[in-house]
Amino acid sequence: MRLDKVFAIKFASLYPLYVRKVESKGRSKEELDQVIRWLTGYSPKGLQQQIGSDNDLQAFFAQAPAFNPNASSIKGVVCGVRVEEIEDPLMRKIRYLDKLVDELAKGKAMDKILRE
User: Fold this and answer.
1) Name one Pfam family in it (predicted).
2) Cα distance between residue 64 and residue 106, in whole Å
3) What is the pLDDT of residues 18-29, one digit of tens each?
């Protein structure tokens, strides 16, 4: 998929897929929201506004109040690509989120996911 197509994906259409993924593995929507808020700095209300908006991933990350400086400690492979080697800054942020959702779905402890 071309980068411009990935960036144009609506966050509101992606979010339910994340919820389904983590809930099918026994994790909660609340845990998912906590992970997303940790990465982006959104408040609970701000995240709900994003879920209810028509924003694409580019706007979702551009409007993030405080992208977590510890995000660079997220390492690993998503879709066959090492996240720490992704050059495009927006694609790296998208893959950071994907990696965190994967870790949540795989049952990793929250303190490990949140790099505490």
Assistant:
1) DUF2200
2) 26
3) 999 999 999 999
Residue 71's alpha-carbon distances to 5, 21, 45, 49, 74, in angstroms, are 24, 21, 22, 23, 6
Q: What percent of the chain has pLDDT over 70?
A: 97
Contact 94, 69 (CB under 8 A): no
d(CA 62, CA 58): 6
Q: Give me the number of domains the chain comprises.
A: 1
Range of the domain at 30: 3-113
Q: How far apart are the first and last CA of the chain?
A: 34
The domain that holds 59 is classified in CATH as 1.10.8.290
Q: What does each C-alpha distance from 37 to 32, 47, 79 come to in angstroms?
A: 9, 7, 23
Tell me the average pLDDT across 3-11: 86
With beta carbons less than 8 A apart as the criterion, state whether 105 and 21 touch. yes
The residues, ordered by sequence, that sit 6+ positions from 62 with a Cβ below 8 Å of its Cβ are: none
Tell me the pTM.
0.93
